[in-house]
């Protein structure tokens, strides 16, 4: 696995301590964290979690998370994060979060596609899934556009931010990834 990963507009790379200001901006936005499993974080809390992210730079064993900064190549600005978890034997899970000012511009699709490519083409995963809260319509639409199929709707499956929430499970198999689209 070679990092960073370059796409047309993005650089997906391990976090750096210098990412703190950019991360604090989007992690502190209630609209951005509305559907992700972490709370609104101030600068100090963001700095604390950044210390963990600095160690999440490889996938060599089940249960590990690769968490990469999503940087716009033309500006050097970190606009979000993308992740790939090695969930089980040849299985992964993909996720993403982007700052509000950078949503709706195709960046999440570009970053998530790169992570699917990493999982299937470089790491040899057989299956990659993604889970989102049902109310997160934009993410569900994006996962479908990426070619992932909705496999489940888990009603009131998780106690999420003070209330029960329904989760949608999406997935793609290796042969579906390789099939012409």
UniProtKB/TrEMBL annotation:
Domain of life: Bacteria
A UniProt-annotated Pfam family: Acetyltransf_3
Record-annotated N-acetyltransferase domain positions: 10-180
Listed InterPro entries: Acyl_CoA_acyltransferase, GNAT_dom, N-acetyltransferase
Protein name: GNAT family N-acetyltransferase
């Amino acid at each position: 696995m070679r990092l960073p990963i370059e796409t047309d507009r993005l650089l997906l790379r391990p976090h750096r301590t210098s990412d703190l200001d950019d991360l604090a901006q989007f992690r502190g936005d209630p609209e951005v964290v509305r559907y992700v499993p972490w709370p609104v974080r101030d600068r100090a809390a963001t700095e604390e979690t950044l210390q963990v992210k600095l160690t999440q730079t490889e996938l060599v064993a089940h249960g590990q998370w690769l968490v990469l900064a999503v940087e716009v190549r033309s500006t050097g600005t970190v606009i979000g994060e993308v992740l790939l978890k090695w969930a089980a034997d040849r299985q992964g899970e993909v996720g993403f979060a982007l700052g509000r000012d950078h949503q709706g511009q195709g960046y999440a699709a570009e970053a998530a596609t790169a992570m699917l490519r990493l999982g299937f083409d470089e790491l040899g995963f057989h299956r990659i899934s993604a889970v989102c809260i049902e109310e997160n319509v934009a993410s569900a639409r994006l996962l479908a556009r990426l070619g992932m199929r909705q496999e489940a709707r888990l009603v009131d499956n998780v106690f999420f931010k003070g209330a029960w929430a329904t989760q949608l499970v999406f997935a793609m198999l290796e042969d579906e990834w390789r099939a012409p689209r």
